[in-house]
Amino acid sequence: MAQTWLVVGLGNPGPQYAATRHNIGQMVIDELAERRRERFAAHKAGARVAETWLRPGADKLILAKPNSFMNVSGGPVSSLAKFYRIEPEHIIVVHDELDIPFDTIKLKTGGGHGGHNGIRDVAKALGTPDFPRVRVGIGRPPGRQDPADWVLAPFAASQRDALGVLLGDGADAVEAIVADGLTAAQQRFHAPRD
Fold first, then answer.
1. With bands split at pLDDT 50, 70 and 90, how would you rate the model's confidence at 192?
2. How far apart are CA 46 and CA 182, in angstroms?
3. What pLDDT, on the 0 to 100 scale, is given for residue 185?
4. Rounded to whole angstroms, how far apart are CA atoms 49 and 44?
5. What is the structure's pLDDT at 156?
6. How far apart are CA 20 and CA 143, in angstroms?
7. In terms of residue numbers, what domain contains 107?
8. Looking at residue 166, which CATH number applies to its domain?
9. d(Cα 176, Cα 194) in Å, to the nearest integer?
């Protein structure tokens, strides 16, 4: 039986943040929408939403980008979950991850927030940390650069060539969780690359 999944990309609103590392979650959501030629529309929950399917006749996907800033993402996510009647185990949150090297995807359900304020707020708003996460590696800043400045900066020129592949991998990871389950998706994306 087909399920409905809420797939949320975390980030900050506004064009000044659109190409920053902190918005890579929303960039992955854009890739998912682009693959399906879907456009986003305003939703009363305080997000831009595109309703689509994994593939025709398969699970439904609610692709969402909150209009709020990262550290208050929980309100829109919780409101969308209530509106669409989706339980936390069917809410996939895509977000940037400092502790994972750039060009790497890691998947998990539950656990701590690792200092990520967006994840902290979503877990608080949902009343549980037990939701699937697609963690897209952006790596740590070089030298003594403040991590807050790092995440709000655009990707380095040396990373831009690989960025399209990374966004594709993030979208593939979401599709794999929906199609095959988290464990199978982890085996695929956590395996060493050739």
1. low
2. 28
3. 95
4. 10
5. 87
6. 19
7. 4-189
8. 3.40.50.1470
9. 20
Q: Is residue 171 part of a domain?
A: yes
Among this protein's residues, is 22 annotated catalytic? Answer: yes
pLDDT in tens, 127-186: 999 999 999 999 998 888 888 899 999 998 888 889 999 999 999 999 999 999 999 999
Quote the CA–CA distance of 68 and 12 in Å, as a whole number: 7
Domain assignment of residue 135, yes or no = yes
Please identify which of the residues 22, 43, 95, 116 carries the catalytic annotation.
22
How many Å apart are CA 159 and CA 102, to the nearest integer? 8
Please identify which residue in the block is written with the tokens 């966004």. Answer: 167
Number of domains in the chain: 1
Question: 8: closest CA among 74, 71, 77?
Answer: 77
- Tokens coding 10: 């975390």
Angle at 34 between CA 14 and CA 122, to 5 degrees: 50
The string of pLDDT tens digits covering residues 12-35 is 999 999 999 999 999 999 999 999
Query: Does residue 31 fall inside a structural domain?
Result: yes
Length of the chain in residues, anyone?
Answer: 194
Give the separation between CA 185 and CA 176, rounded to whole angstroms: 5
* Residue 194: inside a domain: no
Tokens (6 digits) for 19 = 């190409």
Q: Which amino acid is at 51?
A: E
pLDDT tens digits, 50-94: 999 998 889 999 999 999 999 999 999 999 999 999 999 999 999
